[in-house]
C-alpha cells in the first residue's frame, strides 16, 4: 500500500469528455516523486513535438507530490506545467494554499489534461469521483465571484478551487491560475493554457488523508518547527513581515530593482517595506490585531507568511484577494517608482481577481514607462496617457487597460514586454528585462551574479526561486548553521562577494538541483531548503522517509531535482530551444545608475559565457546546453534521450 500518496493519476480528455484513472507503480513515484518532474513525464510522452501552446494537443499537468497533504509545514504546494504561450518553451508554475492538500485528500496525486472541451467546463472531484460540469455561467466573472458561486452551487464552503480568471478569456499571455483567489500559480501563462482548453476550474473536496509510513517520525519533525522558528532570524522576519521583509535589505544591498531595473536602490523603500505593510496596512493593524487577522497560512504551516490587506478609501482592497508579496511590491512599486502600499495592494487585488501574473504584469508596465520617458513611444501609442515613473494612477490605469484588454495599449501589453518591444521598435529592446520572453523578478543579478546564470539557463525563463541567492554563502553573511547545511551538498566554503568563478557556478548548479527537487516534491522554499530555511537537507530526507517509508538520501533527492531539470531541458531541446535562448537582457550588461551601493556595476559577457560553459559541464550537457544521452541515462531517463 502506498504511503503519502494515493497511487492514482486522473487523465482528462476534454475533446472526448473522457475521464480515466491510471494507477502507476511505486517505481514511477520513487523516480519522479511529483511536481513538474511527474508532469514532464506525461507532457513529453503525450504532447506531439511542435504542438502549439494554445492547441488542444498541449498537455496541462497539475501535480502534487508524494508528500503533499502530510500535516507538516510547507508541503501544500502544487505544480502546473505545459508548453508556455509566453515563452514557447516549457511552462512551469508553483502555487500554495489549501488546494494542493485537498487535491490529495480528494483521491488523486495529479491530473493530466489534454484536448479541448466544446464548451466551458469545470472539473469536480470529490472523494475519488470526478466529473465535468458546465462552466458557461462562470465566464467573465472575477475569481472571488467564481469562488462564491461554486461554493453555493456545490453546497460546500470547504471546497478548494483552482481557476483561471477573466484575463485568460481575453487572451492575456501571462494569465495565471488562482486558488483561494489569492494563491497564484502565476508564471508562464498556465491560466491561458487552461482557458484555451475551455477548462475554467478544478474543484476538489476530500476526506481521506494519506497514510504515513512513520507517523511518529513525522510528529517529531513537526515538533521541531516551533522551536526552530524563533531561533532563525530569516524565518522569524518572514513570519512577521511576510516576503516583503526583504524590501529593506534588498534596498540597502542595492538589489531592489528600481525604475525598470535601471537602479538598485529606491529612495522610498521604507514606504513600501514589509514593516510598513505590517504596521499600517494589514487587516487588524489599526487595533494591533494584525498577527491574528492580517496573516494567513497554507495547509498545516506554522509560518503564516501570507498577507491579508483590507482597505477603504482611494485604493480599496478586499481581503479575499490577500495582500502583496515582495515580488508584487517590487514590480508595481520600485520598478514603477510607486510609493503607495495601498495602491500596490490594489494592483495585487486586480491581478488576483482577473488572474494575471503580477511579476510579468508590473514589469511590463515599468518597461512601457521607460519606453515613454525615452520617447520610444508617445501619446499616440498610449491613447493619450502620459507615462511617468512614480505616477501611481497612470500605473493603475494601464493595469486596468491590460486586464480588460480595453485599448490597443492594454491589448499589446497583455502580450508581455518582448512582443511590445518588437511592435514598437526604435530601440525598445534596450529597455527589456526579460529572459526567454519572461520578465525578470525583483532580484538583481548585477549583484547576485550567480542568479544571472540561473536566470539565463532556467528552462522557463528568469526565475528567482530556482536556486539559492549569492548573499547567503558569501563572506560576511553566511551563518554557521547555513554553512553546516551547505556542507551536506558539497559546498563547505564561504565564497567571495560578487564572484562568478567555478566555485560560485558549482554553488548555483547544486542549489539549483536542490531547489528543483523542492519543486518536484512541491515543498515551500521558505520552510524547506538547502540553507537558511526552517528545515535543511537532512530533515528533508527524514521527512520524505517518514511520509513514504523510502530510505532516501540527500544525494538521491538532489538527483530527483536534476531529473526534473533534464526533462525540462529535453522538452526545450526537442522544440529547438538551446543555449542561444540562455541569454540575458542587454540592460544587465550596462552599469546600474542612481545612488545605491551597486551604482556603476554591470555583468560582463565574458563572465556569463564562461559561467555557461562551466554550468553545462557540471550538468553533463553539450556546450549548446542540451542534455546528453549519458546524462539522461545516469538519471534513469534513457527514454527521454530517444526524443532528441
Ligand atoms: S511559509 Fe508561507 S508560503 Fe510557505 S507554506 Fe508556510 S504560509 Fe505558505
Low-confidence stretches: none
The CATH architecture category of the largest domain equals 4-Layer Sandwich
Number-wise, the strands total 16
Number of helices: 26
The CATH homologous superfamily of the largest domain corresponds to Aldehyde ferredoxin oxidoreductase, N-terminal domain
Q: How much is the radius of gyration in Å?
A: 23 Å
Shape: globular
Strand order of the largest sheet: 2-1-6-3-4-5
Helix content: 25-40%
Overall structural domain count: 3
Describe this structure in words.
It is a single chain. This protein is of the alpha+beta class. The chain folds into three domains: 197 residues, Aldehyde ferredoxin oxidoreductase, N-terminal domain (Aldehyde Ferredoxin Oxidoreductase,  A, domain 1, 4-Layer Sandwich); 190 residues, Orthogonal Bundle (Aldehyde Ferredoxin Oxidoreductase Protein, subunit A, domain 2); 193 residues, Orthogonal Bundle (Aldehyde Ferredoxin Oxidoreductase Protein, subunit A, domain 3), CATH 1.10.599. It is built from 26 helices and 16 strands. The strands form four sheets. The protein has a six-stranded mixed β-sheet with strand order 2-1-6-3-4-5, with helices on both faces. A six-stranded mixed β-sheet has the order 8-7-12-9-10-11. A hairpin with a 2-residue loop joins β7 and β8. α2 packs parallel to α23, α7 runs antiparallel to α22 and α21 packs across α23. The protein is globular, with a radius of gyration of 23 Å. The chain starts with 8 loop residues before the first strand and ends with a helix. The mean pLDDT is 97. The structure holds iron/sulfur cluster. Iron/sulfur cluster binds next to loops.
